[in-house]
Amino acid sequence: MGIQSLILLSAFGLSLQAAIPPLPPPSFGEPAFGVLVLEEGNAPQWTETTRQIKTAFMARFPVAFAFGLADTDDMQHGIDQLEARRVKKIVVVPIFYSSQASVIKQVRYLLGIGKNPSRSLFKTYQDLAGPPQKRLEIHVPVVLTATLDSSSVLEKILLSRIFSLRISRKDQNLAIISEEPDSAKDAKNWKEVLSRLAAKIGRRAKFKSTQVFLISEGDSQEKTAVSEKMFRESVQKLRLSGPVFILSTELASDILTQRLSRILSGLLVGYNGKTLLPNPLIAPWVLKMAREGAQMGDMRKYKEKGNKGFMNFPKIR
Q1: Which CATH number is associated with domain 20-149+279-294?
Q2: Right CATH number for 166-263 from 3.40.50, 2.40.128, 3.40.30, 1.10.12?
Q3: CA torsion sign, 105 to 43 to 290 to 33?
Q4: Do the domains 166-263 and 20-149+279-294 match in fold?
Q5: What is the pLDDT of residues 101-143, one digit of tens each?
């Protein structure tokens, strides 16, 4: 690594440390609220992230975790844990990179914040011959905070991943890859968000150019194959203008990261299969979201008939 690269990495490391707010000491006089952290799965990256969050929170306020994509049983278990601690409000913090993901719509439905479930996830449950999902049983006010893309933290995490690599960026094209949301409207919105983010990252990291690609999981093998073929062709075309480095928005190892290794096979591009987690920025971000959520009013509007335990508590200050 050259002197210039070392200076850049050192400078970015200092700015990254400055960007991480110091965690305040535990305070026992704060409003009585608990935090439910939503994570995507149980991959090693999530295990380490959970450990970091637990260490950061310590005795500040009760915290529970739910794993999986809007897993009803896990979310209910986490809620029950917090209610057993007699919390007066539950702040739900989703560690998901996109507010456009169908899982967020499903989470809103389960919490009683959104009126309708996610169409794609609802169809999945039907295909599995499972019963229609009921909303969660919650007896206290609920707040759902924003996802990672709502603040600068996602940009900082992506940049930290880039600056950790020994690559020359001046003559290289950056391709940011993400999973395509199910609906055309959500896909359009997410690509616009990512394109703005890519432009900022390109300027900061001094790439030759930046492009955003969405890969569809598809509701059929044919649709999935078409999406992958179009992506390969686009990357090959981009490769004509210079080297290409692939950066995925996936937080931890999942289906898309496995697919990318196969899709990119044979293409002369840079891709190391690294995910965005674990990252030291996550725990401070969760803490910030939790504190902000604790100051917000109850978001819950809908509940299952017969769930009479729910009470609309006033805003906690």
Answers
A1: 3.40.50.1400
A2: 3.40.50
A3: positive
A4: yes
A5: 889 999 999 999 998 887 766 555 544 445 557 899 999 999 9
